[in-house]
Amino acid sequence: MFEKLVEIMVNYVEVEPENITPESRIVEDLGFTSFDFMSMLGELEDEFDIEIDQQEAANIRTVQEAVDYLEKLTA
């Protein structure tokens, strides 16, 4: 899940995949804007055939938190 998420994230921000770690903060470290983040959530919904709760997603701060959330939805 981490690798797939990184693969999708690099389409939205100019960060090399090897520079994204589980501890990376999505906004502060990777430079996501709220628009980038919401656009990525839409792609993740399509990719994994899930529905992401926007309010829960707003609490996601790090890549690992995103991975944990996606794993919970796809389990």
Would you write up a description of this structure?
With 75 residues, the chain is mainly α. 52% of the residues lie in helices and 0% in strands. The chain contains four helices and no strands. The longest helix has 15 residues, at 34-48. The radius of gyration is 11 Å and the shape is globular. The mean pLDDT is 96.
Q: Which helices and strands appear, and what pairs or packs with what?
A:
Elements lengths: L1 H8 L24 H15 L5 H4 L5 H12 L1
Alpha carbon gyration radius: 11 Å
Helix residue percentage: 40-55%
- The overall average pLDDT, rounded, is 96
- Please describe the biggest sheet, giving its number of strands, its sense, and whether it closes into a barrel: none
Uncertain stretches of 5 or more adjacent residues: none
Question: How far do the termini sit from each other?
Answer: 12 Å
Tell me the β content: under 5%
Content-based structural category:
mainly alpha
Q: What series of H and E elements makes up the topology?
A: HHHH
Contiguous helical run count: 4
* Overall number of strands: 0
Coarse morphology: globular
List its traits.
about 80 residues; 4 helices; mainly alpha
Brief rundown of the structure:
This protein is about 50% helix and about 0% strand. The protein is mostly helical.
